[in-house]
């Protein structure tokens, strides 16, 4: 963060997506490796393990493809701006009419005092 500054913070969603893809690929390789181990050992569960690994990997391939699509086409800039406005209190109207959570106001007031000033506008 010190080297790349705020630019890295704004690209955080891209980093999360990339990590998600890596985690999914790791999970796929673990499932396939486990199923292959059962098959190699000629375990009675081998066919079931292969079937489960196959279904799991099919799901992961679709999820990975979707995550790659989200890297190329997303609403990150709009979400970031809206989140900043929300943190600055510009959307407080949304809370009107809601039943407050017990103890929330004391907790929120204390938290705001501890944190300090509102987030800078983008």
Tell me what the structure shows.
The structure is a single chain. This protein is 70% helix and 0% strand. It has helices at residues 6-10, 12-40, 46-72, 76-87, 104-115. The chain has 122 residues and is mainly alpha-helical. The chain contains five helices and no strands. It starts with 5 loop residues before the first helix and ends in a 7-residue tail after the last helix. It has two domains: 1-74; 75-122, no CATH class. α2 (12-40) packs antiparallel against α3 (46-72).
Essential attributes:
about 120 residues; mainly alpha; 2 domains; about 70% helix; elongated
SSE diagram, text form:
Layout: H1 6-10, H2 12-40, H3 46-72, H4 76-87, H5 104-115
Unreliable runs = none
Q: How many domains, as an integer?
A: 2
The percent range for helix content is 55-70%
So how many helices?
Answer: 5
Q: Please report which band the strand proportion falls in: under 5%, 5-15%, 15-25%, 25-35%, 35-45% or over 45%.
A: under 5%
Q: Which of globular, elongated, flat, extended, rod-shaped describes the shape?
A: elongated
Helix/strand/pairing class, anyone?
A: mainly alpha
């Amino acid at each position: 963060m010190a080297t790349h500054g705020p630019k890295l913070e704004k690209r955080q969603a891209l980093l999360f997506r990339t990590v998600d893809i890596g985690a999914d690929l790791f999970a796929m390789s673990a499932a396939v490796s486990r199923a292959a181990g059962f098959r190699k050992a000629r375990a009675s569960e081998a066919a079931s393990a292969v079937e489960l690994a196959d279904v799991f990997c099919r799901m992961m391939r679709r999820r990975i493809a979707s995550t790659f699509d989200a890297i190329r086409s997303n609403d990150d800039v709009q979400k970031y701006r809206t989140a900043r406005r929300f943190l600055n209190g510009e959307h407080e109207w949304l809370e009107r009419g809601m039943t407050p959570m017990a103890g929330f106001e004391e907790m929120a007031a204390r938290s705001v005092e501890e944190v300090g000033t509102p987030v800078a506008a983008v």
